[in-house]
Amino acid sequence: MTKFYPVKVADVRRETRDAIVLTLDVPKEYKEAFRFVPGQYLTLRATIDGEEVRRSYSICAAANDTHLRVGIKKVAGGLFSNWASEHLAPGQTIEAMPPMGNFHVPLGAQQKRHFVGFAAGSGITPLLSIVKSTLTAEPQSSFTLFYGNRASSTIMFREELEDLKNEHLDRFSLIHVLSREQQDIDLFNGRIDKEKCDQLLEHWIDVSSIDTAFICGPQDMMVGVAQSLEEHGLDKRRIKFELFATSTPGRRQRRPEEAKAEKRQNLCEATIVIDGRARTISFEKGTSSVLDAATAEGLELPYACKGGVCSTCRAMLVEGEVDMDANFALEDYEVARGYILTCQSYPVTDKIVVDFDK
Ligand SMILES: Cc1cc2nc3c(=O)[nH]c(=O)nc-3n(C[C@H](O)[C@H](O)[C@H](O)COP(=O)(O)OP(=O)(O)OC[C@H]3O[C@@H](n4cnc5c(N)ncnc54)[C@H](O)[C@@H]3O)c2cc1C
Ligand code: FES
């Protein structure tokens, strides 16, 4: 589960001026491990300037596509996205962890549902996979996608989305919302935020027709759209999120000297179970997250963002209590079942047992 596998870069396509699409060739022997459901992401690992860097990228391929594909959009000053855009080339090998994530609903051929997607910028990547897979797997279902961008030149997967629309004219409705390019229908000008979503729900789409809404984009957009959907009557359980980065920093990591100043010298004994093996480590409460403490002891654990966003570090807290600083990834039902984000969890009790295999 923690394992990274070498995968070959089969193709690098420049999608827009600042986005690429990587096609990855997974060797036959790992194919099973890389089976995915639409909406899941890969964690990629590379060594950049001597530093190990891990980042998550959503799969944009449909469930039945033969190749794995991810879309990477450059973030200003961003380490991995700029490196990938400038250095990755066909034939190179990169390391990837098998697909993870819960940004999906199970599909069934007999279902007749109406899904709605709200995406902004690179947030289209998981939605492209979800839309394509849904239209294929549920022939009676329909999808309405609102996709926000600055201008038509920055729209990722523009042609692919148009093709999809032409192929499924009666079941796929695609609405581009542009913030810096004027369109004829005023409703589709501007940014996708709460106010825009309110207007869309009042003038364009009937909320009672929505079975599930998927939202992927910046945090403020996601919060606004979700709030609007709920205010218009959509049950919270029918709203699925995927967050790429947070603008709200979690509680900052506490430093050892701060903890000492607080005279919190008490130790926690943490048993970590992973890949069927248990190992017990001991560390001072309040100084390190469970993930940091365990990796410092040499344990190979899964993680990517270390910011409470991606859920790669998810594990089950089997015994004891932790304080979870930030959680932008786990759903309420997962927390209720005992799952924690180990990168954000600080032990409260003297003993904890954390199981990555559950
Ligand atoms: C589950 C998941 C799926 C993701 N899927 C995709 C995807 O399909 N395509 C994609 O392009 N990215 C995706 N991301 C974001 C991706 O993992 C990286 O965070 C992003 O590429 C920036 O990494 P970096 O190393 O270039 O920037 P860093 O060096 O990590 O960050 C540089 C600065 O940019 C900010 N930042 C980081 N990410 C973003 C962002 N997305 N938008 C705006 N500011 C940001 C950081 O806070 C920091 O200030 C996903 C993230 C998660 C958690
Ligand atoms: S590593 Fe991303 S949530 Fe913990």
Automatic annotation (TrEMBL):
Signal peptide: none annotated. Its cofactor is FAD; [2Fe-2S] cluster. Keywords: 2Fe-2S, FAD, Flavoprotein, Iron, Iron-sulfur, Metal-binding, Oxidoreductase. InterPro entries: 2Fe-2S_ferredoxin-like_sf, 2Fe-2S_ferredoxin-type, 2Fe2S_fd_BS, Beta-grasp_dom_sf, Cbr1-like_FAD-bd_dom, FAD-bd_FR_type, Flavoprot_Pyr_Nucl_cyt_Rdtase, FNR_nucleotide-bd. GO terms for molecular function: 2 iron, 2 sulfur cluster binding; flavin adenine dinucleotide binding; metal ion binding; oxidoreductase activity. PROSITE patterns: 2FE2S_FER_1, 2FE2S_FER_2, FAD_FR. CDD domains: fer2, PA_degradation_oxidoreductase_like. Pfam families: FAD_binding_6 (PF00970), Fer2 (PF00111), NAD_binding_1 (PF00175). Residues 2-106 form the FAD-binding FR-type domain. Gene3D superfamilies: 3.10.20.30, Nucleotide-binding domain of ferredoxin-NADP reductase (FNR) module, Translation factors. It comes from the Bacteria. The keyword Cell wall biogenesis/degradation does not apply. One of its GO terms (biological process) is phenylacetate catabolic process. Residues 268-358 form the 2Fe-2S ferredoxin-type domain. PANTHER family: 1,2-PHENYLACETYL-COA EPOXIDASE, SUBUNIT E, NADH OXIDOREDUCTASE HCR. This is Phenylacetate-CoA oxygenase/reductase subunit PaaK. It comes from Microvirga thermotolerans.
